[in-house]
Amino acid sequence: MPKHPQREGDTSAARSSASTAFVPGSMVVVTLGNPRDKFWGMILALAPEGLSMSGLELASFEDFVVMVKDGESVMPAVVFFPMHRIERIELDLPDGNLPSLSQRFSAKTGLDPTEVLDFPDAHAQKHPSHFVPREAKDPA
Question: Which residues have CB under 8 Å from 7's CB, separation 6+?
Answer without folding.
Answer: none
